[in-house]
Specification:
about 220 residues, alpha/beta, six-stranded parallel sheet
Length: about 220
């Protein structure tokens, strides 16, 4: 009997190479407000699931200016998404193999519009969503990661208990969400988040090809 029946995948950094583009688009728009969003600062904001625009509010920037910059960031992010190959080598091949034995879901903090753009406008075909039984984006829950709600919502959709699922993440924020939900978590090696703390991960894997091997060994 296999240890898990369901695999719950984070999206950005696990299935698609997009994390650096979101950072860059945000960095550029904050720079226009004379705010230097360094990578270490961004990482700390990301880990806590905080609002990066609080940096602007702390400088006394008016809300209407922040709203305008946020909209411009969103547009720039989609421009960057449409200009790059977002695929991660070996992802689709791994999903094809895993689908034979597991129910699978994407559980992401990605906004609905960005998720749709990534899968509709990528320069390379991303054959990812067809392998999934469930997709939960930012509008699917109230509280974002590191809150456990996203993963608890997935458990509820599947009518399963935490021990039946394995979360696959690339960020400390996502790991915290999985741990808080009581679900085992495999953290995929991803250069953009390599500096974060993954000491609470159940497994550490190089890529999704290694996940296939890991799960085979747990049967």
């Amino acid at each position: 009997m296999q240890k898990y029946s369901h695999l719950l995948f984070d999206h950005d950094g696990v299935l698609v190479n997009t994390e650096h583009l979101y950072y860059e688009s945000t960095r550029q728009k904050l720079a226009e407000l004379d705010i230097d969003l360094t990578l270490p600062i961004y990482m700390q904001v990301m880990v806590n699931g905080s609002d990066v625009w609080e940096l602007a509010r702390a400088r006394g920037v008016f809300e209407e200016v922040i709203a305008s910059q946020r909209l411009q960031r969103n547009a720039l992010y989609q421009t960057l998404l449409g200009a790059e190959d977002l695929s991660i080598e070996g992802v689709e091949e791994a999903l094809v193999k895993l689908k034979q034995k597991y129910s699978m879901a994407i559980v992401t903090t990605c906004k609905d519009a960005d998720f749709a753009y990534i899968h509709d406008h990528s320069p390379n075909s991303l054959n990812i969503v067809p392998h999934m039984d469930l997709v939960l984006t930012r509008s699917s829950y109230t509280n974002s990661k590191p809150d456990p709600e996203p993963y608890l919502t997935a458990l509820e959709h599947f009518s399963i208990t935490p021990d039946q699922a394995l979360v696959i993440e690339d960020s400390e924020r996502g790991l915290r969400s999985a741990v808080a939900a009581g679900i085992d978590c495999a953290v995929v090696e991803y250069g953009f988040t390599a500096s974060q703390d993954f000491s609470k991960a159940t497994y550490r894997i190089k890529n999704l090809s290694y996940l296939v091997v890991l799960l085979k060994g747990l049967e």
